[in-house]
Amino acid sequence: MSDQKENYSFWTKYKRFAGNEILLYLVMIIGIILGIVIFSYL
Question: In sequence order, what DSSP letters do the residues of 4-36 get, joined into one string?
């Protein structure tokens, strides 16, 4: 049972950072797309 409690605490801590990670991935994807569009026009 102690392992499950540790897993729950791990997931609750991870969910707090999940939003920031998703935002970082979105910024990276948008940056890559903008880079491809800019270089395609150059």
Answer: HHHHHHHHHHHHHHHHHHHHHHHHHHHHHHHHH
